[in-house]
Amino acid sequence: MKRVRIAMIGYRFMGRVHAHAYRTVHHFFPDCPEPELALLVGRDEAALKQAAQQLGFKRWTTDWRAAVQDPQIDAVDISSTGNNHCEVALAAAAAKKHVICEKPLANTLPEAREMVLAVERAGITNMTAFNYRRVPAVSFAKRMIEEGRLGRIYHFRARYLQDWILDPQFPLVWRLQADQAGSGPHGDLNAHLIDLSRYLVGEIESVCGMKETFIHERPTVDGKARAKVSVEDAALFLARFQGGALGSFEATRFAAGRKNHLTWEINGEKGSLEFDLERLNELRFYSEEDRGTERGFRRIYVTEGQHPYVAAWWPPGHILGYEHTFTHEVLDFLRAVRDGKPVAPDFRDGLRCQAVLDAVLRSTSTGGWEHPEA
Ligand SMILES: NC(=O)c1ccc[n+]([C@@H]2O[C@H](COP(=O)([O-])OP(=O)(O)OC[C@H]3O[C@@H](n4cnc5c(N)ncnc54)[C@H](O)[C@@H]3O)[C@@H](O)[C@H]2O)c1
Q1: How far is the CA of 23 from the centre of ligand 1 (A)?
Q2: Can you tell me the distance from the alpha carbon of 110 to that of 310, in angstroms, rounded to the nearest whole number?
Q3: Neighbours of 238 (CB within 10 A)
Q4: For the chain, which residues make up each domain, given as ranges?
Q5: Which residue puts its alpha carbon closest to atom 4 of ligand 1?
Q6: At 292, is the pLDDT very low, low, confident or very high (cuts 50, 70, 90)?
Q7: CATH topology for 3-132?
Q8: Ligand 1 binding pocket includes 42 (Cβ within 6 Å)
Q9: For residue 302, what pLDDT band results from cuts at 50, 70 and 90?
């Protein structure tokens, strides 16, 4: 397969990021099948037409069902809000189209289960878009852990902090409405942390969490009324991993001054690794094997050709950014489509993440420890 014809649902934040990734991927990774931005889907005709022209799509439509069934389409990219993921994915599976879906995979655990069944039965390539696995520094950390550089892992400690709704007058956008978003920073931000923890440390065995909504009512988007916020503003939980490690997770939109502050630290018997998304070209590594009085955290600049994905880009020290993680994500998706092979994280990974999210929410009601039930 030389070309993969893409229908993309959604053209705002993730739509723009994914379109950018499709447009750059073949330029830097010429062995990858060339994606064709064939069809863009949205709901507002005028804005959609403008987006299609700006992002480089050949055609556009407001009918996602027609797009998914279009014989001129090979793969469907679901970059829409969470309430739309399940029905589009089921239709894509029925039409035997390969599918990449933004996170969280679904708004509910039953939806995620249904989606996994559908894509596995259809035998199509399926991917959940947890792009942070494909920050070169994160992929490199995974390699170091697999090589045993940390030894047995004791702790995973992660935070994803933002502050964009700190102002009580910030309007009630879709992310603050449960019928569209499913949950607040839990499904939005903790989902990323859970996926990273599964990638780097392993499966989560049990969780205990809490959540809070600080501002209960906000102005509607048109400014004409006030309405109830139906998601949490912050969600925190503790976890026990199957391998014996202990985890702590924190996601909030009320951390004043924090914009997109995703950090994690892993402590093992032989050392530690630390990552900060706002300095994503770097990894900090402490090794017990270093000797003497100079022992301490060192900064690994993950911009060398030997580091994952980096050789295709710039000379050492010529840094990469947020958008490159999506280029790497679509690269691996397109290669899997061409080769007819699985790619991780797939929908089953998305489901396992969803099961952890769900267990945490159950625990906020029961007040006790809960087990993920994928
Ligand atoms: N991987 C990441 O780091 C990351 C970052 C942000 C958002 N996301 C995820 O991406 C998804 C979209 O979020 P966003 O920030 O791009 O939102 P957004 O509000 O910027 O865009 C949402 C898009 O969905 C489209 N849409 C919704 N329902 C539709 C329908 N029925 N038919 C056609 N189009 C429809 C809208 O028209 C819009 O273009 C969410 O699942 C979100 O959690 C992932």
Answers
A1: 19
A2: 38
A3: 16
A4: 3-132, 136-279+281-320+353-366
A5: 14
A6: confident
A7: Rossmann fold (3.40.50)
A8: yes
A9: very high
